[in-house]
Structure formats: structure tokens, C-alpha cells
Amino acid sequence: MVAVRKPTLRQQALNIPNLLTYGRVVIIPAVLALMAFDSRRNAFFAALLFSVASITDALDGWVARRFNQGSVLGKLLDPLADKLLVLGALLVLIDLGRVPMWVVLVILSREMIVTSLRSVAASEGLVIEARDLGKKKTAFQMVGLIALILHYPYQMEPVPEPFDFRAIGLVLIYISVFYSVVSAWDYFAGFVRAIRGSGGSGGSDLGG
Q: In a 10 Å sphere around its CB, with 0-12 CB exposed, 13-18 middle and 19+ buried, how is residue 88 labelled?
């Protein structure tokens, strides 16, 4: 029987999913800078870069699963890059007056709760995987943020009235806030069930 050689830390750090994550991290300052120096042109390019970063988020996960290139480093960097991208954009949007502060507080609180639950679950040998509620939250959140970053009305043929991207973005963000709250409760309820089921001894899987 031939033993499968485990990739070195260097090989893991330079695999395709992690390279995509590094690229997303590099894009973040450019997105925030374009947003901070607000204009119709800068808003367009900021939304374009934000969209690219969002695509790399989905792509790196697909590549990791498809080619079995998941790594401990990737599990750390990927969610960190996502949070930096989303929370950075939300903070600038507060400064620009495009999103209410309470929305950001709800989203931030949700991320803190879920991250804490994941940490406690990991210490007990449990795993909280992403479920449909969390995926819906992310989808509405990302598309809503892109619309809020675009902000300005755009005339798009053949529709006679210009698209009010700020209004569209707010609706989508409010929907994502709803899913943020519901998915946080879902994480918590699943966490409690798994802890009770395992008797605190670990070793069970937990959907989240």
C-alpha cells in the first residue's frame, strides 16, 4: 500500500484556492478606496471589483472541493477575507449615508455569534457546516452590497425608468438581515442539539 504524501505548508499556502483568497484580500483596499472617494465612476469600478472578489469567494471553495485542495490555512483565511470585504464595505457605506448603522450592528453581531459557536463546537469535536439559510443570507448580502456600492440611478434599456440601485440594495440588505437573524438562531439551536446528543463528549457532526 502506497502512503499518500501530505502537502507541505508551503504547497498548501500556494495552492489555487489560497491564491484566489490572497487576490480577494488584495482587492479589498482598492474597493474601499474607490468607495471612499465617491463619484459615479468610482462607484462603478468599486462595484465591479467587489463583484470580482465575490466571484473568487465562490470559485476558491469550488476548486478546493473539486480538486481536493482544502487546507487548514484556507479554512482560516477564506472566512477572514469574506468578513473583511463585507464589513469594510458596510463601514464605508455607513459613512456615505447609504445604509443604517443598525443593519451593520445586526450583521456584525451575527458573525460574532456564529464564529463563537464554531469555535466552541470545534473544541468539542463538533463541526458546524454552512446550511441553506446561511447561503441565502450571503447571496442577498453580496448582491445588496453591490447595488448599494453602485448607488447612482442608471438608465438601462428598454426599461423607461432608471434603476435606483440604492433602493434595490437596501431591500436586498434588509432581506439578508432577516436571514442573518434566522440563520444565527438556526446555528444556535443546532449547536444545542449536537451538544445534548453528544453528551459533551465530541465526535458528532452538526449542520449550521
A: middle
- Has residue 160 been placed in a domain? yes
CATH classification of the domain holding 84: 1.20.120.1760
Q: Are 89 and 54 in contact (CB under 8 A)?
A: no
Which of 53, 73, 97 terminates a domain? The answer is 97
Q: Which domain holds residue 78?
A: 10-97
The amino acid that residue 201 corresponds to is S
Nearest to 88 by CA among 20, 33, 163: 33
Question: pLDDT (tens digit, 9 = 90+) per residue, 43-64?
Answer: 999 999 999 998 888 887 777 7
52 in the same domain as 19? yes
Q: In terms of pLDDT, which residue wins out, 110 or 195? A: 110
If one counts the domains in the chain, the total is: 2
**Residues 103 and 205 both lie in one domain:** yes
Euclidean distance between CA atoms 179 and 123, whole angstroms:
27
Question: pLDDT tens across 64-119, in order?
Answer: 777 676 676 667 778 888 889 999 999 999 999 999 999 999 999 988 888 888 77
